[in-house]
């Protein structure tokens, strides 16, 4: 018998939100690890709020909502609030009930700003990393470092002279601007939209753009990020930040560090050896002599590091295509760094779903 296409909305639902999520859905395991990390962060979260006054958005729900935004490539917080209104999977993960109201986007943004004061992103990242380490997923001996450009939320028209306008102002809110034959540099110019962004190009053939540099340290066993930070975009930042990332790695044994040809400089290699780190960076075969010789390349581990180091591009590729960091939505290095580290934590959670067998 043919069914009738009649619409009759039910006033009540007798199916719990928990039952609507499939038992094998990967978000169930991510929620378990996230809740464990947030439980350990409770003292830090409590310290950010006054004991009295009007209740704000629970920071646990706020962080889960931001995690949804990263994992599902939601392009803005306004769209995130819209999807939380009708997406039952998102509601379940964040902790909202079927009939709970969704926050105003301005209120959500204001509450998110509070989390910047407590370095919550780094603390959450550390808690996720602790769980991965307890599961035996991390190598304590072999690492890879690299950097990537993160385009700033600022246009070329905002890059103006520090001592005054370079040309007469035009008409309207978005006047025409001609930068041809005008010498522009970070010493004489600055973005009025994001003053901390720097004009930088990755290579000679690439266009210059206002951006930041994101740096990640990866362990070579399963390709998980163990450290990350954002710096000013300049030609020496990748090597200097690599040393800072290494100093935060807790290890008492000699380790190896892989990298591309940009790290093959005499100063950087000597610095690594002084830190008892074996440099497994790719050899530069251009106009200058490589700082890596047969003392390093003759060992089989060097060839293995050269194969493993390329996996760090998977991290950057995921951050840009899924995590929303091809072009940042935030202004200022502190906020960009916060989102970069938080997105690395989301990447690690995604990797843990694939690496840790599901319970029977």
Please describe what this structure looks like:
The protein is of the alpha/beta class. Among the domains are: 17-118, no CATH class; 137-152 and 211-330, Nucleotidyltransferase, domain 5, CATH 3.30.420. Helices cover 41% and strands 13% of the residues. The chain contains 14 helices and eight strands. It has helices spanning 17-20, 26-40, 42-46, 59-71, 77-86, 88-94, 105-115, 120-134, 237-247, 266-274, 294-297, 300-308, 312-321, 333-355; strands spanning 142-151, 159-161, 189-191, 198-200, 209-219, 225-232, 255-259, 277-281. The strands form two sheets. Strands 1, 4, 5, 6, 7 and 8 form a six-stranded mixed beta sheet that branches. Strands 2-3 form a two-stranded antiparallel sheet. Helix 2 (26-40) packs across helix 8 (120-134) and helix 2 packs across helix 14 (333-355). The longest helix has 23 residues, at 333-355. The chain is globular, with a radius of gyration of 24 Å.
Q: What pattern of helices and strands is seen along the backbone? A: HHHHHHHHEEEEEEHEHEHHHH
How large, in whole angstroms, is the Cα Rg?
24 Å
Shape: globular
Q: CATH topology of the domain at 137-152 and 211-330, anyone?
A: Nucleotidyltransferase, domain 5
Please state the average pLDDT score: 89
State the share of residues found in helices, binned by percent.
40-55%
User: Which runs of at least 5 residues are low in confidence (pLDDT < 50)?
Assistant: none
Helical run tally: 14
User: What is the CATH C-level name of the domain at 137-152 and 211-330?
Assistant: Alpha Beta
Number of strands: 8
The major pleated sheet works out as: 6 strands, mixed
Strand % is: 5-15%
**Helical/strand content category:** alpha/beta
- Rounded to the nearest angstrom, the distance between the terminal CA atoms is 41 Å
What is the correct CATH architecture of the domain at 137-152 and 211-330?
A: 2-Layer Sandwich
């Amino acid at each position: 018998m043919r069914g009738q296409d009649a619409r009759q909305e039910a006033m009540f639902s007798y199916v719990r939100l928990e039952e609507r999520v499939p038992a094998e859905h990967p978000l169930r395991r991510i929620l378990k690890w996230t809740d464990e990390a947030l439980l350990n962060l409770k003292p830090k979260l409590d310290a950010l709020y006054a004991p009295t006054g009007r209740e704000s958005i629970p920071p646990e729900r706020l962080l889960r909502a931001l995690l949804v935004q990263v994992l599902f490539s939601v392009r803005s917080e306004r769209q995130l609030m819209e999807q939380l209104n009708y997406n039952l999977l998102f509601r379940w993960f964040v902790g909202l009930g079927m009939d709970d109201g969704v926050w105003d986007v301005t209120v959500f943004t204001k509450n998110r700003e509070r989390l910047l004061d407590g370095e919550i992103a780094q603390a959450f990242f550390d808690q996720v990393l602790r769980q991965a380490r307890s599961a035996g997923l991390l190598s304590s001996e072999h690492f890879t470092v690299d950097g990537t450009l993160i385009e700033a939320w600022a246009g070329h028209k905002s890059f103006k002279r520090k001592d005054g306008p370079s040309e007469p102002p035009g008409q309207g809110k978005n006047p025409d601007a001609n930068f041809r034959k005008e010498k522009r540099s970070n010493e004489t110019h600055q973005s009025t939209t994001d003053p901390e962004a720097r004009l930088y190009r990755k290579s000679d053939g690439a266009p210059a753009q206002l951006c930041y540099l994101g740096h990640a340290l990866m362990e070579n066993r399963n390709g998980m990020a163990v450290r990350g930070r954002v710096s000013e975009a300049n030609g020496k930042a990748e090597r200097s930040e690599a040393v800072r990332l290494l100093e935060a790695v807790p290890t008492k044994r000699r380790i190896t560090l892989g990298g591309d040809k940009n790290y093959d400089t005499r100063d950087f290699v000597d610095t690594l050896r002084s830190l008892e780190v074996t440099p497994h960076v790719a050899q530069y075969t251009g106009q200058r002599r490589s700082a890596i010789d047969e003392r390093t390349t003759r060992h089989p581990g060097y060839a293995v590091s050269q194969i493993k180091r390329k996996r760090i591009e998977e991290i950057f590729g995921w951050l840009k295509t899924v995590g929303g960091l091809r072009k940042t939505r935030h202004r200022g290095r502190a906020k960009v760094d916060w989102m970069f580290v938080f997105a690395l934590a989301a990447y690690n959670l995604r990797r843990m779903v694939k690496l840790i067998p599901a319970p029977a």
